[in-house]
Amino acid sequence: MGIPNGFGSILFEGLVSAMLYGITTLQTYMYFMYYSEDASTTKFLVIAIWILDTLHISFVCHALYYYLITNYAVPTSLEYIVWSFPASLLMNLLVVSAVQCFFAYKIYYLCRPQVKWLVTAPIILSVFTHLGFGVETVVLVSVNDAFSFLPRIRSYALIPCAAAIVLGEVLITLSLCILLYDNGSHSAFPRTKHILNTLVIYAVNRCLLTLIFTVAELVTIVDNQDAWAVGLDFNIGKLYANSLLASLNTRQYLRAQASDPKPDLAINAVHFRNSPKLSEDEETPKGGKRHPGVREMAIIDVAAVPTFDRTTASRRKGEVQF
Fold first, then answer.
1. Mean pLDDT confidence for 1-16
2. H/E element holding 62?
3. d(CA 101, CA 123)
4. Are 245 and 57 in contact (CB under 8 A)?
5. Which tens digits make up the pLDDT trace of 30-42?
6. How many Cβ atoms from other residues are within 10 Å of residue 90's Cβ?
7. DSSP tag of 7
8. What is the enclosing helix (H) or strand (E) of 289?
9. CA atoms within 13 A on the CB side of 285
10. pLDDT of the residue at 192
11. Mean pLDDT over residues 288-301, rounded?
12. Which of 38, 173, 303, 310 is positioned for an S-S bond with 207, CB 3.0–4.6 A?
């Protein structure tokens, strides 16, 4: 693997990874600043993700420094894999698996009791498949520290690992969109529909970048573009970490929408009354009286009545993050 054709793309992706780590750190700070009341398990997950991401960018920087600075003008060093490279793969693997398990748990929480395991079981299976093939890849790369060894494990380690992460991402996105859309379609309240539609858009946007990068990594592995595959892998964990933190940090915006002081309009009452008399009474042939100027009017009292639905009630019991 040469410097221009190989490590040029790896260096570029490493710089992008460093920028994404800055966004991860900022989002972590914002989380602890605005959501200090969250459960301890959620806080522990956020801290663990940030620590793993910090270790990952440290290993990436070490690998780039080793090849491009320490062993500058030593072409033979480019043929071997430094220890920090498989270590960065392991950190990425743990971050992606933790984030996918988090979203699988939220999907399990949203599903009806009859279909909870039917929906979440394929997601969990794909997560553990990715984790298994990923650990296999890390072990094989650590034992055989030559770049020429990577094509040998492509068919039984690299491709299954990349395919499993793509499958898991597709299943998570489809499940979130279908569940949120289904809940919104059964609600008669425009505000609830708007919030759920916003969550659907968030779910699609969350998947967009991660899916593009995972599919691109799978394509580069199949096409035997190892340098680009390594570079893309540098950023996948960062994208997953930011998707988790973004889903947690957008709750304040959604709360503001849900607690909008503008109430829904509802018909409070319908009153009937007679209009003022406009002319004198006239006698009928039978001796009765007719009121030609009197018209019966319906006065509809449209009052601002706050309305609540099951979503509002459930939000008081416990909040679900997407």
1. 74
2. helix 40-65
3. 8
4. no
5. 999 999 888 999 9
6. 20
7. I
8. strand 289-290
9. 0
10. 62
11. 48
12. 173
Phi-psi region of 224 (alpha: psi -120 to 50; beta: other; left: phi over 0): left
Determine contact, residues 234/14, Cβ cutoff 8 Å: yes
- For 159, how many CA atoms within 13 A lie in the half-sphere containing its CB? 12
Query: In 3-state terms, what secondary structure has residue 235?
Result: helix
Instruction: Look at the pTM and tell me if it is higher than 0.85.
Output: no
Sequence length of the chain is 322
Q: Which residues contact 311 (CB under 8 A, 6 or more apart)?
A: 183, 187, 189, 192, 195, 196
Residue type, 71: N
Read off the tokens for 183: 């809940």
Dist. CA 243–CA 211, nearest whole Å: 12
The answer to whether the CB of 191 falls within 8 A of the CB of 258 is yes
Query: How many angstroms separate the Cα of 252 from the Cα of each of 23, 44, 129, 283?
Result: 19, 20, 35, 70
Q: What is the DSSP string of 204-229?
A: HHHHHHHHHHHHHHHHHHHTT-HHHH
When pLDDT is cut at 50, 70 and 90, the band that residue 193 belongs to is low
Helix (H) or strand (E) holding 300: strand 296-304
